[in-house]
Here is the input.
Amino acid sequence: MKRPSRAHMLHWLFETSLVIKASLTFAEFLAGLGLLLTPNPLIARLLYWLTHFEIAEHPTDTLAAWTQRAMEGFPVATQDYYGWFLLLHGGLKLAIVAMLWARILWAYPAGMAVLSGFVIYQLFECLHTGSPFLLMLAMFDLAMISLIWQEYKALKAKLPAH
Here is the structure.
């Protein structure tokens, strides 16, 4: 049985990361769209309905209590901000993933630049909020940048010299 080459494994990791990134960014895009199209009181009622059983069973449930408190201070302007942020952030990353999947050469450096900007923002926010989720997301994006770079070098090597 022949062992796959390093280049083959890196290409497989690149394609797998594109699928993961596309799934996450599509969900992000849909969440933004949902926030923009759903009235604020309906979101508040939905979150209350999702959390009130847990609080009734476990009055000290921190996540459920935090969710209810956060929703109390979730004005329409904040909902609109997060809606547009998620819609544009997810949409931009979806466009980059689609261009990388189509092997559009200029999308590789553009994708690395955009992801680098997101990593800087995520690390900055992580330092201020202490969010382990943002740190994890930044690490995934750094790995993605590395895979894009490897794929870009391999793709350029296959192109005929001008």
Residues 22 and 94 are 6 Å apart (CA to CA). Helices lie at 6-37, 40-57, 62-72, 76-101, 107-129, 132-158. The mean pLDDT is 86. The chain is about 85% helix and 0% strand.
